[in-house]
User: Which sequence fits this backbone?
C-alpha cells in the first residue's frame, strides 16, 4: 500500500486540483454573465444554452407580459443563426423565429418567419403570431451574431417553448441547417420569470448531470477521503487494519466512479462539435492522469502484494506498528 508520507502528499496534491476543477465548472456561467452588449443594453437574466455555442439574455416585464431578449450564437460571417418561440408545442415546426444573417455585401439583417414545414420551411418575412412591440435588430461581431428583440410572451405565460438554430448561407441565401448532432438539440422550455430551463432532449441533459455527479463523488469525495483515512486513522491501534481496507475501498470506488465520469465527459465532448470548454477539459485530463498515477503506486511492491494485502516489511512497505515504533523512539 502507500508508503508513509505518500497519503499526506496525495491529500495535499488533490486540494489545488479540486479548486481548479470547481473554477473550470463555473467558466460557462461566467461567460454568460460577463457578456456585454452595444447601446448600453443590460439584461437581468441569462442562460448559457447547451448547444451551438449560444446564450440567451433577457429581462422580463411582468406589468405587460413582455421580455427584452438578446440571443447570441457563434457563427462564421457566412452563416446564420435563429431564435424563436413555439406557442403551441415543443419543437421546430410551428415556431415563430427571428433569423439573423448577412447579405453578399456584409449587411446584417433580421427576418421574422413561421416554420410551417419542418422539412423544407419557407423563410418568408412575415409577422409573428405574438406581439413584437419593437422591430428586431441584429449585429455581427467577434464571430458571433446577436439578435435583439422585444416579444410579447404568448398567452401571457412566462413558460415558453424556445428554439434556436444555426447554419450556413451562400450569397445571402439562407441554406438548410444540418440535421445531425447539436443542430437537433436546440429546444428548451424556458420560464422567463424564474430563469429555469428544461432541455428538449432529456437524454443529453441526464448524461451531463450524471457526468458531474460521477466526477464530484469520485474525484472530489471518495479519493480525498481515502487519502485522509490513511493519513489520520492509521495512527490509532484500534483502527488497524480497518483503516487500510476503508482506504482501499474509497480509492478503488472513487477511481472507478471518476473514470466513468471522465469517459462520459469524453463522449459528451465528441458530440459537441465546435464547442470545447478547454479549461474544464484540461483540468479533467490532469486529474485523471494524477489519479491513475496514484492508484498505480499501490502496486509498487518488492514482493507479491495486491490491493487487499495490508502493507508489511515483507512487501517492501513499512507496517503501521513499525512506523509507530520509530516515531516513539
Assistant:
Amino acid at each position: 500500500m502507500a508508503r508513509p508520507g505518500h497519503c499526506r502528499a496525495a491529500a495535499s496534491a488533490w486540494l489545488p486540483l479540486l479548486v481548479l476543477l470547481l473554477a473550470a465548472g463555473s467558466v460557462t456561467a461566467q461567460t454568460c454573465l460577463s457578456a456585454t452588449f452595444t447601446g448600453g443594453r443590460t439584461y437581468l437574466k441569462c442562460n448559457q444554452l447547451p448547444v451551438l455555442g449560444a446564450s440567451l439574455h433577457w429581462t422580463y416585464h411582468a406589468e405587460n407580459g413582455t421580455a427584452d431578449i438578446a440571443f447570441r450564437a457563434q457563427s462564421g460571417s457566412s452563416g446564420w443563426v435563429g431564435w424563436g418561440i413555439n406557442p403551441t408545442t415543443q419543437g421546430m415546426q410551428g415556431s415563430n423565429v427571428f433569423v439573423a444573417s448577412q447579405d453578399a455585401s456584409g449587411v446584417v439583417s433580421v427576418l421574422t418567419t413561421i416554420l410551417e414545414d419542418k422539412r423544407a420551411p419557407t423563410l418568408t418575412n412575415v409577422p409573428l403570431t405574438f406581439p413584437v412591440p419593437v422591430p428586431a435588430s441584429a449585429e455581427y461581431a467577434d464571430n458571433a451574431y446577436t439578435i435583439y428583440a422585444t416579444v410579447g410572451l404568448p398567452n401571457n405565460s412566462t413558460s415558453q417553448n424556445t428554439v434556436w438554430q444555426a447554419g450556413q448561407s451562400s450569397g445571402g441565401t439562407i441554406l438548410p441547417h444540418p440535421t445531425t448532432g447539436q443542430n437537433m438539440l436546440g429546444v428548451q422550455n424556458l420560464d422567463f420569470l424564474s430563469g429555469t430551463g428544461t432541455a428538449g432532449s432529456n437524454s443529453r441533459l441526464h448524461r451531463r448531470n450524471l457526468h458531474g455527479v460521477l466526477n464530484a463523488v469520485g474525484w472530489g469525495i471518495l479519493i480525498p477521503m481515502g487519502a485522509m483515512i490513511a493519513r489520520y486513522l492509521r495512527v490509532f491501534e484500534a483502527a488497524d487494519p480497518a483503516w487500510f481496507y476503508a482506504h482501499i475501498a474509497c480509492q478503488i470506488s472513487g477511481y472507478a466512479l471518476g473514470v466513468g465520469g471522465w469517459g462520459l465527459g469524453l463522449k459528451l465532448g465528441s458530440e459537441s462539435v465546435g464547442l470545447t470548454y478547454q479549461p474544464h477539459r484540461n483540468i479533467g485530463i490532469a486529474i485523471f492522469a494524477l489519479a491513475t498515477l496514484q492508484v498505480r503506486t499501490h502496486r509498487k511492491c518488492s514482493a507479491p502484494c495486491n490491493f487487499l494485502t495490508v502493507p508489511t516489511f515483507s512487501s517492501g512497505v513499512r507496517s503501521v506498528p513499525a512506523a509507530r515504533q520509530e516515531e516513539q523512539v
User: Anything to note?
Assistant: The mean pLDDT is 78. The chain has two domains: 6-26+204-324, 52-184. Residues 202-232 form the longest helix (31 residues).
